[in-house]
Design goal:
Elements (H helix, E strand, L loop, with lengths): L1 E8 L6 H9 L1 H8 L3 E10 L3 E10 L2 E12 L2 E8 L6 E10 L2 E9 L2 H27 L1
Antiparallel strand pairs: 1-7, 2-3, 3-4, 4-5, 5-6, 6-7
Helix pairs in contact: 1-3, 2-3
Length: about 140
């Protein structure tokens, strides 16, 4: 299991309530988490609490399809990606939380050695921009 964390200060004037509302907006979360989104479909559950989506996304290795579960919590949202790329199974579990004036994301990645290393590098490289985009949307 590989782990990493991304933490972004919440801009002055932006309330934790607005950030939580953005985190609980599954449509916004999917569009934020999947910048190369092709399409997504609601599969099961309740978008107000916990729901599973089928996501088609564009990755460097080509188009990929995976399951994304978003579960709202009182202080954020949990995200769970279950993907089956050509080189094995990949699971990415994220815990997005509003804590002490920051948006903090703790990520656990499971898969084979190469998939874990590649996914961890990708999270560390792309998620700070995703945090910024989400915080921008929370201001709107």
């Amino acid at each position: 299991m590989a782990t990493t964390s991304v933490s972004t200060p919440i801009p002055a004037g932006l309330s934790a309530t607005n950030v939580l509302a953005a985190l609980h907006n599954h449509d916004l979360m999917i569009k934020t988490l999947c910048p190369a989104l092709i399409s997504y479909e609601f599969e099961t559950g309740d978008p107000a609490t916990s729901a599973v989506y089928s996501v088609t996304d564009r990755k460097p290795i080509g188009q990929t399809k995976y399951k994304l579960t978003l579960t709202n919590t009182y202080d954020g949202v949990n995200s769970l990606v279950n993907a089956k790329p050509p080189v094995g199974v990949l699971t990415i579990a994220g815990r997005w939380r509003v804590v002490d004036g920051t948006l903090r994301e703790d990520v656990e990645i499971d898969g084979n050695f190469m998939m874990k290393k590649m996914a961890k590098g990708n999270v560390e490289k792309t998620h700070p921009a995703q945090h910024s985009m989400l915080l921008q949307q929370a201001k709107a």
